[in-house]
Design goal:
Blueprint lengths: L8 H6 L5 H15 L4 H24 L1 H24 L1 H4 L18 H18 L1 H25 L7 H10 L9 H15 L4 H22 L6 H33 L2 H36 L1
Helix pairs in contact: 2-11, 2-12, 3-4, 3-10, 3-11, 4-7, 4-10, 6-7, 6-11, 7-8, 7-11, 8-10, 11-12
């Protein structure tokens, strides 16, 4: 769990249009964005490099056949995700009601349960091979979508509205865990602008294209000559954690934009806070690297 440092005074003074609680919520979202590539996602990046190596080997060995095989796998994953997104929103919100403000939880509930469920599914698919994958893709997609819906509900969104359904789908269109921090933030704003005027049909296709590509690369990673079950479980956990974090960021920004009516002011304050959070993280890493050297020199 991320431990928040105090909000810098200059940033707090800049966001004078927000209440103290709202400033803290925006700072928490900024830290989440800055830390979007957590340890598990960085480990997933190791598999990502192996994925690129495998794709290159397939292309060299099979030429046109290898390319067609890769495109076919990607297309199948995207089609499976699209089918789930069309049909599973009712499941995603089943039993969920918008929490009244006075009992809204501090953190979305059951997030850990969703991460553990997708981890188990990814591990099982690693053991079972292709038959397991055919079950893992729809299960993981539907579970992540439900987790996003819970974040929306706990942020005060009306889950029965078409606007909230769009907002939940938008989260899946916001980049991927394989991007670095700066790309994640840029991708968020770019994707949000890009999908804002799409019909629900095109939005689902956009989300399926982005998320399907993430899952198809995961499938290739499970072919790496290591324990496929471990790889599938690890990547599913990291992906679920990533999209839960992006959902928290997205619905925090939406809530503040609605309350203040100043979307540009919220964006500028958020960007400044993300920059400050990244700088603090860089300073912390430098200190951790330098400290052992200084200790050794002192001894």
């Amino acid at each position: 769990m991320t431990i928040l440092s105090p909000l810098p005074e200059d940033l707090a003074a800049r966001a004078i249009f927000l209440t103290e609680q709202e400033k803290w919520q925006l700072w928490e979202a900024a830290v989440l964005m800055a830390d979007s590539r957590g340890m598990l996602v960085r480990l997933a990046g190791v598999f990502g490099r192996q994925v690129e190596g495998l794709k290159a080997l397939v292309s060299q060995a099979g030429g046109r056949i290898g390319g067609v095989a890769w495109l076919d796998l990607t297309q199948r994953a995207q089609e499976a995700v699209e089918d789930v997104l069309w049909n599973s929103y009712a499941y995603a919100i089943f039993g969920l009601e918008a929490a009244p403000h006075f009992i809204r939880p501090k953190r979305p509930r059951k997030n850990l349960m969703h991460r553990l469920a997708t981890t188990a599914s990814g591990a099982a698919s690693g053991f079972a091979g292709l038959p397991g994958v055919l079950v893992d893709i729809p299960f993981t997609t539907a579970t992540i979508l439900r987790s996003i819906a819970e974040v929306a509900r706990d942020s005060g969104e009306d889950l029965s509205s078409e606007e909230t359904r769009r907002a939940c789908l938008e989260v899946l269109a916001f980049g991927s865990p394989n991007e670095n921090g700066e790309q994640t933030e840029t991708g968020y704003w770019a994707a949000r602008l890009g999908v804002s005027h799409l019909t629900i049909n095109l939005l689902i296709r956009s989300a399926a294209g982005q998320f399907g590509l993430v899952l198809s690369e995961k499938l290739i990673a499970q072919m790496v000559p290591v324990a496929g079950a471990v790889t599938g479980g690890l990547l599913n956990y990291s992906f679920t954690d990533y999209y839960q974090g992006m959902a928290k960021v997205h619905f925090c920004l939406r809530a503040l934009e609605k309350r203040t009516g100043d979307a540009q002011g919220v964006k500028l304050s958020f960007e400044a806070m993300v920059k400050a959070a990244r700088e603090r993280r860089r300073i912390g890493r430098r200190r951790r690297r330098v400290a052992p050297v200084l200790l050794a020199a002192a001894n």
